[in-house]
Amino acid sequence: MITLALVPLGCAGGVSPTQLAPPTGAPQPGIEECGTLKLPSEWQPEGGGSPLNGTALGGLSALGWDSDAQRLYLLSDRGQLYQARLDFTAGRLSGFSLLATLPLKSADGQPLEDDAADAESLIVEDGANGVAGDATLLVGFERQHRLQRFTPDGQPVGQPMRPTGFEGADFNAGAEALAIDRREGLVVGLEGPPEGMPAGITRLFAPASGRQWRYTLAPEAGSGLTALEGNGDTLLALERAFAPPAPLVISLRRVRLTDSGEAEVETLARLSSGEGWRLDNFEGLTRLDDGRFLMVSDDNFIALQTTLLSCFSLPSD
């Protein structure tokens, strides 16, 4: 059950606590909230003397947690990489501090631009091996569909990868989701149906083995897969359904990869703006050390939207 409440905690940098649930509570089975923060569109550190003062913070499409460094990576769909520290008070997310921001770069050392910069998904590799400072970032891009590794300061590592699972991917519905499955290893999820797939069905694929799975999206109009995260023997999927004038719906769904080529999908929680939930365009998801999760919304650099960073947990099976 979600029981979100406004917690009056002081936050730096223009960060403020907020709530997703309607004022009346609206119980939602399946997940339990552990704090939500509204992030500013520009970073405003206390005192104003930081070189990060006025840094644009928005368009966030992916999250990754580095356990060894206790650092959160956030990625925008304009190819900007952010590093941040989180604070928790009494078990609830209470603070966010921006530590660094830098662009993802090409092999010639130049910041990625335009279609080449549309980063949509992220995995922190070697971020929980007990060795601080050796992590690499695996990033999924759309428009120019590919996977690419980077150092934490945005330098490319190796060559871009273009697995066959990208075949037929829509220009703007590519690798929105990356996760590590215990059996299959790296799994990539396309946001929407690739060429040849019926409406409402998209594709998951494992680049190492070439295996593919049909993934049935949630039934709401405009549903798209925006993130995946490993969760024990299953995956946790984040979906966003946006089709005005219909309400915005965010779904959290358990995914099992089967030998049949069909992904078994079970909805754990369905949050709808039509029921009073204060939602935005949630696109990024990552798992914390204690098994809880963070999700973040992409404000599209539009004043009417907000960047929300929300902590939640799933019930034990």
Q: In CATH terms, what is the fold-level topology?
A: Neuraminidase
CATH level 1 class label? Mainly Beta
Q: Treating each run of at least 4 consecutive H or I residues as one helix, how many helices?
A: 0
What's the shape?
globular
Got a strand count? 21
Query: Roughly what is the average pLDDT, rounded to an integer?
Result: 91
Strand fraction: over 45%
Number of domains: 1
Class of secondary structure makeup: mainly beta
Work out the helicity level. Answer: under 10%
CATH architecture: 6 Propeller
Largest sheet: 5 strands, antiparallel
Query: SSE order in H/E notation?
Result: EEEEEEEEEEEEEEEEEEEEE
Unreliable spans are 1-10
Blueprint (SSEs and pairs):
Elements (H helix, E strand, L loop, with lengths): L15 E3 L13 E8 L20 E7 L4 E6 L3 E10 L2 E12 L15 E7 L10 E6 L4 E5 L5 E6 L13 E7 L3 E6 L10 E5 L6 E5 L6 E9 L2 E8 L7 E9 L5 E10 L9 E6 L5 E5 L9 E7 L4
Antiparallel strand pairs: 1-2, 2-21, 3-4, 4-5, 5-6, 7-8, 8-9, 9-10, 11-12, 12-13, 13-14, 15-16, 16-17, 17-18, 19-20, 20-21
Protein architecture, described:
The N terminus is likely disordered. The protein has one domain: Neuraminidase (6 Propeller). The chain has no helices and 21 strands. The strands form five sheets. It has a five-stranded antiparallel β-sheet, with no helix packed on it. It is mainly β and 317 residues long. Helix content is 0%, strand content 46%.
Brief write-up:
The chain is mostly beta strands. It is built from no helices and 21 strands.
Keywords:
five-stranded antiparallel β-sheet; mainly beta; 317 residues; 0% helix; Neuraminidase
